[in-house]
Amino acid sequence: MNKLLIVGTVAFDAIETPFGKTDKILGGAATYIGLASNFFNVDAAVVSVVGEDFPKEYLDLLENKGVNIEGIEIVKGGKTFFWSGKYHNDLNSRDTLVTELNVLADFNPVVPQAYKNSDVVLLGNLHPIVQSGVLNQMSERPKLVVLDTMNFWMDCALPELLDVIKRVDVITINDEEARQLSGEYSLVKAAAKIHTMGPKYVVIKKGEHGALLFHNKDVFFAPALPLEEVFDPTGAGDTFAGGFAGYIAQSENISFSNLKNAIIYGSNLASFCVEKFGTERMENLDKNEVNARLKQFKALTQFEIELEE
Amino acid sequence: MNKLLIVGTVAFDAIETPFGKTDKILGGAATYIGLASNFFNVDAAVVSVVGEDFPKEYLDLLENKGVNIEGIEIVKGGKTFFWSGKYHNDLNSRDTLVTELNVLADFNPVVPQAYKNSDVVLLGNLHPIVQSGVLNQMSERPKLVVLDTMNFWMDCALPELLDVIKRVDVITINDEEARQLSGEYSLVKAAAKIHTMGPKYVVIKKGEHGALLFHNKDVFFAPALPLEEVFDPTGAGDTFAGGFAGYIAQSENISFSNLKNAIIYGSNLASFCVEKFGTERMENLDKNEVNARLKQFKALTQFEIELEE
């Protein structure tokens, strides 16, 4: 079984959407990625940090989903990273209400010995120095390194971000971030410029408008599934990245054609994530539902036109 | 050859985008639709009105593209409809600077005798009473009636709009208009509600984010082609509608599967329209370019995933 190493936050979230609000619930990029990886035949491990206040049942949940949690450090007397946000009525934008870094402020990731030779590494959205630190611990170059990041690091740690971007195969960012990173408005031009920074593959996430995969002159588009209700977008991007990386790790194939399938899988899993608050839907999702929705994705996008000569 | 009847404006436009500005040039929904219909084996005719100031070479252009212009009334001493707009930097929104209705204010469309039995009718964006007036002149129920409209008529002539919507098979509107017309934020729910108003098929145009085709529980998505440069979005929606209706008229097949192909063709043609100012690109486009781009649409969207059991 191929190994997938996941680095990212394991956290508390408090979420408010037009449909309701939660108390502190399980959140964090690595949590969503880990839950997504459970749908693939991979040996996944999370490297992260939590405080002593983090409930054991949350860690048990990840472990029960087959995620190795040896690399999740529990800081004695420490408090877990906490994020709180409120979504606007259209669910496409949100305000951050609270960000308490807590134990994340001094996070020094340690990759478990057994995962230093992981086949695929997914560097979830964290300080680029933490992301580089993980790559430095690998005993051999992974077959594929995927990096997720956000505008915050472009604003505050651009040189360090550019350093780690040089070392990865795939970058996943949203459309605004692609524009900011490249200085190009056209996403085609933005992707071309980001290619020159290192990543062979550029994935641009457009939320409800789907995701684009660029590889040199090739481009592929995975739509988001049109849904009757979007309940809570939190974690959709991480779930997308987790599905993407999980599919590649399972199939051990980093061709463009396989990466196309991977972003379809990522979109598929993300379409479930938004149906309930927080991780609830992903915790209770089964593989038959995922397969059924894959058929919906095919119906949504596949067509038969004979080309005229 | 099947007949396609096109009703809409033939006009002067003056356009400003971040890339430049034009004087009064050829514009109007029916112009773009007519130019798009030229890529299909159909007998297309335009019903519209212009003033005496309208250059003969513009009418010749349409005629040379195989569009019957017998139904374009030339009002003696009248002035042609004029629209002027300025696009914002992102090209996704624009301000209307000038709207001079001129001869359009008293437009009373007359369908030429030879087109009263048209197979497909495309009611371009005009006052819903004008749209109904055209349907009233048909000698038999067309195989397919497509209606394009906009928020302006929802604000100013909703009862008349609802009357004509009852009589059509396909409505094409943008996402915000679908929300306004239905009172539903989710596009899935909006389409379901619009179905109950009459149209069996609901096409929701999302500009650079593609278009959705709804038919009861079925949904299909055609992306917009990611382009290096978008020069001028004017007429893209009309070109899309023209490609859609032209493809259906040519193929004489109103199945869901054929309508999927039709929105791919519409997106294909629209992707050219935006590459130059006004109608320039569409005037000089040839069928080989369209076929080549169809291959790009296939590459952009088609994937092969084996479903696991």
Automatic annotation (TrEMBL), chains A, B:
Pfam families: PfkB
Keyword Chloroplast: no
Domain annotation Carbohydrate kinase PfkB: ranges: 21-281
InterPro entries per the UniProt record, alphabetical: Carboh/pur_kinase_PfkB_CS, PfkB_dom, Ribokinase-like
Gene Ontology molecular function: any one: kinase activity
CC terms in the record's Gene Ontology section: cytosol
Keywords: Kinase, Transferase
Tagged with keyword Kinase: yes
Protein name per UniProt: Sugar/nucleoside kinase (Ribokinase family)
Lineage: Bacteria, Pseudomonadati, Bacteroidota, Flavobacteriia, Flavobacteriales
